Amino acid sequence: MELGKRIHRLAGRLQEVVRAETAAVGLTPAEFDVLSALRRAGPPFALKPSDLASGLLLTSGGISNVLRRLQQDGVIEREADSADARVAWVRLTPRGVTVAERVVRAVTRAQARLFAPVPEDLQRAAIGDLRQLLIELGDEAVQEGV
């Protein structure tokens, strides 16, 4: 219980930071998650909606709503795969790359401010311990280096 409560409280603090920064640029946290996932994918900044949904733990309906809003805002585009008509891709537009960069940097700065009072060695120890905990729990993303 103690570990779960502390992790939950820390996650809440981080979510507050993300909410504040994303709201400042007119995005929801889910929209930020999609933009940052596409940015992390690297050029051409494209992923399949199903990969986005599973990686972000969103339902297919949830991801569809988020993608619709982002497309209306002109930060993503959807296009069919030229080799397989059953496959669609979600891609950042040039404006989307700019927005994603701006909001990811803002969130990163805000998280750095949150953790600024914490000594560097304590941060490094927590990173290592939490990584090991996730590996022990079978988290594949952590095992891949995320």
TrEMBL record:
Gene3D superfamilies: Winged helix-like DNA-binding domain superfamily/Winged helix DNA-binding domain (1.10.10.10). Residues 1-139 form the HTH marR-type domain. Pfam families: MarR_2. InterPro entries: HTH_MarR-typ (IPR000835), MarR/SlyA-like (IPR039422), WH-like_DNA-bd_sf (IPR036388), WH_DNA-bd_sf (IPR036390). GO terms for molecular function: DNA-binding transcription factor activity. GO terms for biological process: response to stress. This is MarR family transcriptional regulator.
